[in-house]
Design goal:
This protein has eleven helices and twelve strands. The chain has 337 residues and is α/β, with parallel strands linked by helices. It has a seven-stranded antiparallel beta sheet with strand order 5-4-1-2-3-6-7. A five-stranded parallel beta sheet has the order 10-9-8-11-12, with helices on both faces. Helix 6 links the parallel strand 8 and strand 9. Helix 5 crosses helix 10. It is globular, with a radius of gyration of 22 Å. 38% of the residues are buried.
């Protein structure tokens, strides 16, 4: 098709777009005065690349990336900021795939929506310092980010408006849908993620039924978090393909029919009050239609529903670390101030 594509191109060129499968996105916020660069934070997204960065939960600091990768990302960010002759804040987005293959998605020499989160999570007033740099103050005259006195994690979670718009498509994608955000702070990533979920208004259960309807692309990663859910006392209900995959891997679950199959189906199970948590990932139009029923019914009943497997994995980690009561601490408790 190259000849046909080139024939309709006004400039005789063709742009090729390639989607990165199973990649994790990261955000970097930094401050540059044209001579020096200070990296404020490197953030790891919970959802996979492809979900709009404004809709993805993310953490300061990265919880799965190696120190070598983080160091490499900071160097690339420094080189980009200086090459762009930046005077002020810069936000750079990367995607990490496989064993550390790094892709540059975009570099924006301006303040990003992550600035308030980074400022709160690190104790470094990035917005105020950015304004000073943009008006001529060199970084050498400004304070550096506080150094943590001990390990901690800050997780940003978004607030979605789906409950206010009946019939809206309840799915994360390239279009930003969130209308607000909250932050959870804890010594571990799991507890910080759990706190962020609770702060966002999700009624996270400690036990009960979990509905799993997972697309084929995500099934290989499902048995591990599913086993943890069973060990924590949850009962798993799964649609046919998901149920078969879990049983093949030794995970106990109960079959639930899809909407297009004989009743009782998954909507009946939800209506009966047997489901307290749901995870539904889709790939393709058919699974998207089934997912719409699941998500709509759960929304009516206030059942927390996750649409990516990476979010389930983070939630399971949080459930494992759920102390009663959850510990509360101020950011100053973690920083060497």
């Amino acid at each position: 098709y190259w000849d046909e594509a080139l024939s309709v191109s006004a400039e005789g060129s063709v742009f090729i777009d390639h989607f990165l499968e199973d990649a994790i996105e990261m955000d970097v916020d930094a401050l540059c005065d044209g001579r020096e660069v200070v990296v404020a934070a490197v953030m790891e997204h919970v959802e996979q690349a492809g979900v709009h960065s404004g809709d993805s939960a993310c953490s300061v600091f990265p919880h799965t990336f190696s120190e070598e990768l983080v160091t490499r990302v900071k160097k690339h960010t420094t080189d980009l900021a200086l090459a762009l002759n930046t005077r002020g804040p810069i936000n750079v987005q990367y995607a990490v795939q496989g064993n550390g293959d790094l892709y540059l998605l975009e570099a924006n020499p301006r303040a990003s929506r992550t600035v308030p989160f980074v400022a709160k999570a690190t104790g470094w007033p990035l917005a105020r310092l950015s304004a000073l740099v943009m008006t001529g103050t060199p970084l050498a005259q400004l304070p550096r980010p506080p150094k943590p006195g001990r390990v901690y994690n800050a997780v940003k979670e978004v607030k979605m408006p789906f409950d206010r718009f009946p019939g809206a498509r309840i799915q994360l994608g390239a279009e930003m849908r969130s209308t607000g955000e909250v932050m959870g702070l804890a010594a571990s990533f799991g507890q910080a993620f759990l706190k962020a979920q609770l702060a966002a208004g999700h009624k996270i259960p400690r036990s009960g039924g979990v509905l799993l309807s997972i697309c084929d692309h995500d099934k290989p990663r499902l048995p591990a978090p599913a086993r943890v859910l069973v060990s924590l006392g949850f009962k798993i209900y799964a649609t046919r393909g998901t149920c078969r995959h879990l049983k093949d891997h030794g995970v106990e679950c109960e079959l639930v029919h899809k909407v297009s199959e004989p009743r009782p189906d998954l909507v009946d199970v939800i209506s009966d009050g047997r489901i307290q948590l749901a995870v539904n990932t889709v790939f393709g139009q058919a699974s998207a239609r089934d997912g719409l029923f699941i998500r709509s019914e759960n929304l009516k009943r206030g059942i927390p529903t996750y649409t990516t497997l990476s979010a389930l994995e983070a939630l399971v980690e949080g459930l494992q670390q759920w102390d009663d009561p959850l510990p509360v601490a101020a950011l100053q408790d973690f920083l060497a101030l």
